[in-house]
Write a structure and sequence with these properties.
By secondary structure, the chain is of the alpha+beta class. The chain is built from six helices and eight strands, in the order βααβββαααββββα. The longest helix is centred in the middle third of the chain and has 25 residues.
């Protein structure tokens, strides 16, 4: 068995998010939803993004072979990232279920529920969640074309390792860079992540957001 260490191309994914925002822009304009985007929406949207990661965790947790103690969460807002990781070796099926869960349940399904019940807030949250799922979708569709493998998250929230008997060097993965490969026996994995990890800059951003919300409430 060999291992292949990858890292997400965050700059490319950010550009894809901007491109994906173009059709969302027309939907928001068509449904006249711009007036709903304010400080309250931003706070709710942050909570919605945490819910996004919770659904990744649910995708992991429904597998009886995954120990829930190995599911960890974190925020690294300076990189534009909230994350959920599983700190054990899991199957291709397990990671693909986790990747697609938030997109389906609080993206596509909630979007149509918002349309049916004319709930503008739910439509907005769903649209932004779909845009924010671009990294998950890139990984999901990249993994579809790969032979069977085992997946391991790295402490770097943008990196992961695939373990397989197949040669993955011949596969070019869009938006995902291969850093190195080697024999699995030489792979060193670090599983010392806390259950919840929040960077210092993320705390600052949270505090600023709360201050803005309080100021907005008192101003109006």
């Amino acid at each position: 068995m060999k291992y292949y260490q990858y890292r997400m191309n965050i700059k490319l994914l950010n550009w894809l998010s901007i491109i994906l925002f173009i059709p969302a822009f027309f939907i928001i304009s068509l449904l006249k939803l711009w007036n709903y985007i304010d400080i309250y929406f931003l706070v709710i949207y942050f909570l919605w993004m945490f819910l996004h990661e919770v659904f990744h965790g649910i995708g992991f947790a429904i597998n009886k072979n995954i120990n829930c103690k190995n599911i960890v969460y974190g925020a690294c807002l300076e990189k534009g990232i909230l994350y959920c990781m599983c700190k054990q070796k899991i199957s291709k099926r397990d990671i693909m279920i986790s990747l697609i869960f938030p997109f389906i349940f609080i993206g596509v399904i909630t979007f149509f529920i918002g349309i049916i019940f004319n709930n503008q807030l739910l439509i907005l949250l769903s649209l932004f969640n779909i845009i924010g799922s671009i990294g998950d979708l890139v990984m999901f569709f990249s993994f579809l074309k790969l032979p069977d493998f085992y997946y391991v998250d790295q402490n770097d929230c943008t990196g992961f390792v695939l373990i397989s008997s197949s040669d993955f060097t011949k596969y070019k993965l869009f938006g995902i860079d291969l850093l190195k490969s080697g024999v699995e026996a030489n792979l060193e994995l670090s599983n010392n992540c806390k259950k919840i990890t929040i960077s210092k800059l993320s705390w600052i951003i949270f505090i600023i957001l709360i201050i803005l919300l309080i100021a907005h409430i008192f101003y109006y």
